[in-house]
Write a structure and sequence with these properties.
alpha/beta, single chain, 2 domains, Rossmann fold, 6-stranded parallel beta sheet, binds 2'-monophosphoadenosine-5'-diphosphate, 9 helices
Length: 306
């Protein structure tokens, strides 16, 4: 589907942005601008390189400039937590902010996203959300056709992305969760947190002693073609999993996904997760259902050139 032509930028154009460092390769502007164009909205989305020590300044600046919303990517998702005026339950529960909604009071005194109001009077506050965690579960269902509830899952990585994924999968009701991380103590800390917050989930660190339905890679291994696999496949062969999900979306096929495909696993990369987190942010800002297929087409074309 070809996105419709953009409405020309005018004095009324509403603005959103993504802040990150580095940011030059972000595919979010292509995805969101295709969404705005498809719905005929006079909105634009830009990417801004923001150093971590400038994050607060940048957020306050966007608020002063009347921006409707901001996405945050590496390295800002944890740093932003204490900077928000209000945290949505999603941000508190999954421990990170990837979407900021600027809100102002409407004539009835209700806090409403500024993108859904014509005239903004009075103070504007920042509300932090997390749309990443739900996006993972949705993408596992849509792209791997595997239901996380009741599943046995091996999760690779216990950094920021790994922690949010582990907590969200536990909340979804996976049966068993194995956490594998280079720094074993971080996997253990996360396992302890899950055992406390989600006592019904059987959580362990290290390699599984059984087959699993899903392996999820939440490490950064695979971004570079020279990276080793994030899993010792001599000790735990990939054919012991039904599906392998890699949160990395560029390259489209990481060495892990290639190896998994070659032994017959279902595979999916992180494009679906990127799409669904973006679609949820789009709806929070605009109040409109996101045109998923147009956004997906723009994302795939931007990321993989087809
Ligand atoms: P993110 O927010 O993307 O999760 P992060 O918090 O820096 O970023 O986490 C990166 C993850 O990739 C961690 O699980 C990290 O392992 P450590 O906790 O041991 O640092 C993992 N990772 C990064 N480089 C790695 C490497 N060379 N070998 C194994 N794991 C690596």
């Amino acid at each position: 589907m070809t996105p419709s032509a953009h409405r020309p930028i005018s004095a009324q154009t509403r603005l959103c942005a993504v802040f990150g460092a580095p940011i030059r390769h972000s595919a979010s502007p292509a995805m969101h601008n295709a969404g705005f164009a498809t719905l005929g909205l006079d909105w634009r989305y830009v990417a801004c390189e923001v150093a971590p020590e400038r994050l607060m300044e940048a957020l306050v600046g966007a608020r002063s400039l009347g921006f409707c919303g901001v996405n945050l990517t590496v390295p800002h998702k944890l740093l932003a937590l204490p900077m928000m005026d209000v945290l949505d339950d999603s941000a508190t529960t999954w421990g990170a902010v990837n979407t900021v909604v600027f809100e102002a009071e409407d004539p009835e005194g209700m806090w409403v996203p500024v993108g859904r109001q014509r005239e903004i009077r009075g103070p504007v506050r920042m509300r932090g959300h997390n749309t990443d965690a739900d996006a993972l579960v949705q993408s596992l269902r849509d792209d791997l056709a595997i239901e996380p509830r009741g599943a046995r899952v091996l999760l690779l990585g216990a950094g920021g992305a790994g922690r949010a994924a582990a907590l969200r999968l536990a909340d979804e009701g996976v049966n068993n969760l194995w956490l594998l991380n280079r720094t074993e103590s971080k996997a253990q800390e996360l396992a302890d947190e899950i055992a406390e917050r989600f006592p019904a989930v059987e959580v362990q660190t290290g390699l599984p002693d059984s087959d699993v339905e899903i392996i999820v890679n939440a490490t950064s291994l695979g971004l570079k073609s020279t990276d080793p696999l994030p899993l010792p496949t001599d000790l735990y062969p990939l054919r012991r999993a039904d599906g392998v999900y890699d949160m990395i979306y560029r390259p489209a096929e990481t060495p892990l996904l290639r190896a998994a495909r070659e032994v017959g696993c279902r595979t999916a990369n992180g494009t679906g997760m990127l799409l669904h987190q973006g679609a949820a942010a789009f709806t929070l800002w605009t109040g409109c259902a996101a045109p998923l297929e147009a956004m997906r087409a723009a994302l795939v074309s931007e990321l993989h050139g087809h």
